[in-house]
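PT: before anyone asks, these are the final sequences, not the draft ones from last week. 768 residues across everything. Please model them as a single complex and drop the result in this thread when it's through.
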Amino acid sequence: MNLPVYIQIDLSTRKIRRFQIDKKMFERFIGGKILAAKLLYDMTRPGIDPLSDEAMIIVNTGPANGTGAPSSSRFNMSFKNLMTGGIASSNCGGNFGMMLKKAGYDGMILTGKADEPSYIEILDGDVHIKNAQHLWGMDTEKVQEEFPAHYGKIVIGPAGEHLVHYAGVLSGERVAGRCGAGAVFGSKNIKAVVAYGTKRPEVYNKEKLDKHVEKWVHFLQSHPMTGTSLPKYGSAGLVTKANATSALPTKNFQRGFYEKAEDISGETLADTKLIRNMGCVSCPIRCERRVKVYDKDVKGPEYETVGLFGANVESADLDIINEINYIADIMGMDTISLGGTIAFAMELKERGIADFGVDFGETGNIPEIVRKIAYREGIYSELANGSKWLAEKYGAEDAAIHAKGLELASYEPRKSVGMGLGYATSNRGGCHLNGGYLALLESVGVLSTDPLETKGKPELTVLMQNAMEAVSGSGFCLFTAYSMIPSILFRLGPSHWITKLCGKVLVWVWPVLGIIWKFMPWILPFNSMFLLPHAEAVKQITGIKMTTGRFMQLGERGYNVERLYNYREGLTANDDSLPGRLTKVPQDKNPKSVVRLDKMLPRYYKVRGWKEDGSPSKTKLWQLKIFS
Amino acid sequence: MSFFITEKCIGCTLCKKLCPVGAVEGELKERHRIKERRCVECGVCGRACKQEAIVDSKGNVMKAVPKDQWKKPVIMKDKCSACSMCVWNCTKDALRIAEPAFKGDIRVFAELSDPKKCVGCGICESVCPLHAIHMEVGGQ
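LR: through. Structure below.
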């Protein structure tokens, strides 16, 4: 078993320490966001300021990174969340994770603050902190051109330098946007980290891994979602589906249906703007869009960006959406929080509360405003603090669409109540992915469990949150988990009686799911291509006796550690909430079209084994062996 | 383990220019040196060196091979998933994912776009998770 090697850099003293994760820790927490959460919990003091010298940012990989397993390029960053005050984890594709491993390290921990603008160079295991005065101020595109093309790079843009609360970090054109990682780097005076080396990731059983990967790639290619829909239409292919089920946020989440949704759908994007599709390194799904902006071949928008700069601001202009996406990328910003904040600013103007020069239906000036936010120019500095901050200053809290301070993604939870529960309980705030992405089973997938039914949703949310936590922690892209939905259902279609029956069964088996959790590590003592092929890959890469049950428990362990961190920072059950618009005002005439957190949360805590205040019980911590 | 440059080296810089991972250091007309931690033992330096100044990790002197006899990657389209592991690992910029054959074509493959840039290091072959690449003399 090859144990992960980490490097800890104190930027204030320039002290560098190399250390190995011990065997017990590795077997329990594996890597990525799960191991990072544990390290962050153990190595930082409660109550620190996320932008202080004392704050820590962990950039790490999972065991799969760099091995060539499908969609395994995603590296993770964990730190104290600028938006919520709890834990933050943010991950993206790009080649940094693979190159960090090739340079000799599985993870990097940064503390302190460099006394001048700097970048970190990691070459063949050697670490140097170098002056970056000449790079400071550059956008994310230009700064990456300053380094050799084959280096793995993470960089921040002007938004990170100016401590925009939702500034992201870029690797190539991929963005780890959420939670403000860019601002944490900016606060430490770090413009970039580059890595290169030729070390091969060590694999426990290469032959078996290769066989598994070959089968898995074929499986992904033959699946209607990962083999056809995502490569053809990208994640934006979900626009039409979300709109059809009234789950596409429109006019700052006032509605869930946008009349012009077809004009901004993934299909229209593919027909009119798409040059070709592309993929992250090691990914056979290739969902990335390539479009033309300012006559340049650049990355196209994801579903979230299309939703939040399209329907949610009542605009159907794909050219402007592409432009906003590009500007946000080169400035280094999260398009979800940015979109949510701008839509809230539009509503503030509509209500006559504050005027930031933005109006629903008028997006022509947004690219310029995005630049102003990145540089914190004038009043736009206020928008750089996010919706929660704005609502605290101006009021209208019912219309500030965030959970714990992090803006919601582009799924309207009143027509996807399980997604609402996920948003509210997600450890990093209003995130669809960390929240369990129940929208997939309620409103944008082929399976449609009753999107207004609260029964069964806590159990399904726990199941999905844990599965996705484990997939992320191992270093895989969450899109590989799409294949858990049997392809036969896609072929039959959403209106076929078998598909409908499956949707109903999923909701009504909730008592069974509740029981399954009590026996989780033992109840699934096998690995299957049809459930979570990631478990078998982790087994062959690490040599750990991983089964699907243990893999799910790994996810549960990660979720609990993150929750513990949040609880220690003062986030409790009171913070598992959503704005009044979503919990009190029905979306339409059906009084059930509202997120009944009061109904779902108690059951959710029970299934999780948490106390009423939302903290993990001692029994749960003992079961998961988090501290023993 | 790593390759090694002997005193036969005349400092012509050819190996330094060709090395796909930047493992060779040295100035013109000075004896070059191979960084042990960087070397991937691909043999490119040895095949290019007419002075026979390169010794492999087992101590064997590498023989020069004419450039037209260097192996090039052959990509099996039926196996390739266009995952780009080869493209990202090729520092010579010799590989790319082919343009779609028609609008909306999603079944694309890796291809040797610039055979002249390829030095035949075989890194693409070694990183391909699907074993869709093999190195052949005259292949492209």
